[in-house]
Amino acid sequence: MRFLLTINRFCFLVLFLASSVGWSQSVDRELTSSAADSFINGGNLFEITVGDVAVTDLGANPAINQGFLQNANTIYIYSGGSWSPMDPVGNATDKDFVIVEDGSTTLTGNLIAQDLTIDPGATLDFGSNDVSISERLINNGTVLGGDARLIFTGSTGEFTGNNIEVSNFENNGSGTLSLELDLSVYDLVTLNSGTVDNNSGKLIFKSGPVKTAMLNQVSISNAMTGSVQVERYYQDTRAFRFISSPVTTTSSINSNWQEGVNNTSLDYSQNQNPNPGFGTHISGNFTGVNGFDATQNGNPSLFGFDNIGQAWTVVSNTNSQTLSAGNPYRLFIRGDRSINLNFNASTPTETRVRAEGELAFGNFVESNLNTGAGAFNFVGNPYQAAVDMNTVLGASTNLNTNSFYVWDPNLQSGVGAYVTVALPAGTNTSASTANQYLQPSQGAFVTTLNAGAASIVFNESDKAVGQNTSVYNTSNGIHSIVGQIFKNNAGVLGQYPEDSFGIDFHETYSNDINAMDAIKPFNVRENIYVNNSGVNLSLERRELPADNEEIHVDHSGYSVSEYTYRVYVTGLVAHDVFLRDDLSNQLVALSQGLNEYQFSVDPNDASGAIDRFSFVFQDTTLSNPTIDSGALEIALYPNPINGDVLNIDLGNLDNSSNQYDLSFRVSTILGQQIMSDALNVSNGQASVTGLGTLSTGTYLFEIYDGKDRLYTDKIIIE
């Protein structure tokens, strides 16, 4: 058995040993150092195979390490390619010591230890396992932990040595864990108890193209002391972003987002880029004073928003202003600091903008909001975690809970545009990744509901860790029109629309402007929006259309001459839907699903008129149907579908003689047809197979008799 002993000064060891026992170090000596002497490193390791150890105090302080130790801590050592006395995985406890002396080894399962030491030159790969430490982690070598969860479980402890990267970090300790190294986390930090002290090292929240590390809900006030570092990844797109810091810094904006440097010369050979792949340029004048990077035009790239005055404001300096958690900005990001600012055509690069400061914990309230009904308020996510805007707005005071607005840099050919996110579903009409989850380091606009004081409230319970936006969304109304405008470059359309709008119809909605509708925020270039009696809307929720009703859609900000209109029609089977083009006085019939209409504009004539387009509805005149759809009672089951088959109950309808031309269609919400086939009905029953091949999501299921649609409903594939 192997023992680890710490012997205070003026103590000696009395060993009661069998005659066959030996040891590797003489211990019958007086210890005179002022600190405790630990026999663990430098060959000071006792290898005792039998017997017990007694510690006797000779000095003035009685009972210092005095007593009788039996079955002391076990030491597991990896050396020469193997573990001794055995593999600690599944054997070691939180009272034992694990040492990797040399070579490289990978954990085969979860590891528990009191102390874990990796000696110089040695490598320990955590794999995808849990590593639980109750006192010390001493990394003098290399730790590979990118897929692992590191857990602290003791009363007090420390992580020291070389820096470590892990997927998850969790503090379940009861006292203070001192970080004396940099601990980088790629996925999730959970602080259940105790305190993490960052004053000697720091916790780093990493960010990449797929996900950003987040901080789980925190229920204790002293969960962390000292500063952490947070990163936010930005793709290689030259565009504005709505950015917000999740930390409050004592250092300047320049020290953080600009990596502590700025260009005072226009000569690119003197460009300051100390950490390639990190930071960005922030411009504001010609010469680089006040912390800005010098540019030829001196245009500012960092703005705040005055919620009271309803106007963008230029940030006056970056060398003295600091960052506060939840304070949002509009920042033009060109890439990292390798970009040549003398050329707008410089190829953008991806970058990670980072800041170091204290994280925001607990509830967060911002009351500096405009009191006018419908006013826009710029707010920032104060947490290092995604938040569900449904619960944020639900707990806030006098704010519209039905929508909010973000900026998507992918729209308008990379310039960026506003996206209206409809709540509670978190959908939008712009093919954007934006949804109901506001991301860490992201800002957004919310609107005041009624005249009067308003405030936004963020609670720890609003956090939605792991919700990195990755899903494309559109309007999800069963009766809806979604319009998108694309630049038409010789018949080739861009990946993203320049702008979009949505109209959802329901018998419970109102045609009057109310909180269910979303006011249109205007983009730099193209804008399309619903005009309801002079009120501009990016999303309107209104009653089901009446015969000959017309809804006006305005356009502005054209930047080219050729465009393609994409209009998605869902439901509305009781009406024929038309796009009216007043330039040609033409009614263009729209079918279910996707419709495209190409048009040209010239700002010097009527083709560029703001009110050129509208939608017209006429009651559908059907050919004499052979089936009375109103008399059918159709049921679909199971729905949601987690298998391959959808059963259809059509009541007493019998088509055994094939007197009806029945068929079905399965389409995406956008109207793209996925499946279609004849529907064989017997005794009012039918089934559709092959649904197990569809991706998880919501689809439209339709039943036709010839060209007449009998039935439309949503199905959900799990």
TrEMBL record:
One Pfam family hit: Por_Secre_tail
Name of protein: Secretion system C-terminal sorting domain-containing protein
InterPro entries: Secre_tail (IPR026444)
Organism: Nonlabens spongiae
Signal peptide bounds: 1-26
Organism ancestry: Bacteria, Pseudomonadati, Bacteroidota, Flavobacteriia, Flavobacteriales
Keyword annotations: Signal
Domain Secretion system C-terminal sorting stretches: 636-717
